[in-house]
Amino acid sequence: MKRKNVLLLLVFIIILTGGMVYWFYLAPPATFPDKEKIKDTLMNRHNRINIAEIQDSIFLDDEHVYIPFTTKTESHGISLWEWKKHEWQLTSLSTGNMPLIWKIEPDDPATHYIMWNLHPKNNLDYLTFYLIKERGYSVTEGKHQYDPGVQMDFRAEVEEQSYGYSPIPPEWQEYVEAENQQMEAMKPDPFFAGFFPPTQYYFGWQSISKNGTIEYPSYPDNNGFGSGGQSTEDLRFLNENEVYQK
Question: Could you tell me which residues come within 8 angstroms of residue 195 by beta carbon, excluding any fewer than 6 positions away?
């Protein structure tokens, strides 16, 4: 009898554990919150912003959503939401005048998205995004290696709406995946690594005004606010002399 009770208890624990795993990690996403609930979350006391409008709800997939918004001080912001532990969670928030990249799965560049939300008064024509790796020199396992510079770019039109997004192009995805694999396979020399670390690629951008000049979109001149985890990264604004001119 005692043995039977132990078996029943084990079965109960297994069922309970399986149910909890399904509930928190495997259950399909619930309905996404409506605009009022999104506003309430964005306007909590920690975020220090006052929402004017939720502009859109853009599903990147079933569990990741991009919500652009505006504030009552005319800032244009980006919020990123994720279905996690059986609830929709605010993953990242930014009201700075710059695009960011969301690496949903850090090791899978096919899930990397660039998004932006810039005030129309900046009078922009288009944005150019860059993947850049500077020429470099590194030492690995006693071998000296010179790395050529790399520059890739693509253009995104700025249309009537202030916000937009784009997955990184397929050729970027291939390059990032190859670079990540190479970095993982490398075993830097402990003596030389501090002096000659491998060169890392980075993401940058430029905004081109309707008069054809490269101008940082400075309107509105508010102090930007941002919060987020390791899955997001601000893009570096590049001056004209920082990119190779074709």
Answer: 139
Average pLDDT, consecutive stretches of 10 residues, N- to C-terminus, the chain (246 residues): 62 56 62 95 84 96 97 94 94 91 95 96 95 76 72 92 96 94 68 59 95 91 70 93 82
What distance lies between CA 147 and its chain's CA centroid?
Answer: 27
Strand partners, 64: 61, 82
For the chain, counts of helices (H) and of strands (E): 3, 16
Name the one residue in this structure whose structure tokens are 């005048």.
97
56: CB partners within 8 A, 6+ apart? 66, 67, 68, 161, 163
Q: Which two tokens stand for residue 64?
A: 């990741």
Residues of 183-200 as b/e, b for ≥16 C-beta within 10 angstroms? eeeeebbeeeeeebebbe
The pLDDT assigned to 234 comes to 92
Provide the pairing of β-strand 201-209 with 236-237: parallel
- Taking the C-alpha atoms of residue 103 and residue 64, their distance in angstroms, rounded to an integer, is 11
Q: Taking the model in full, what pTM does it have?
A: 0.83
d(CA 228, CA 237): 20
Residue with tokens 């929709």: 88
CA distance 205 to 184: 27
Length of the chain: 246
The SS3 of residue 49 is coil
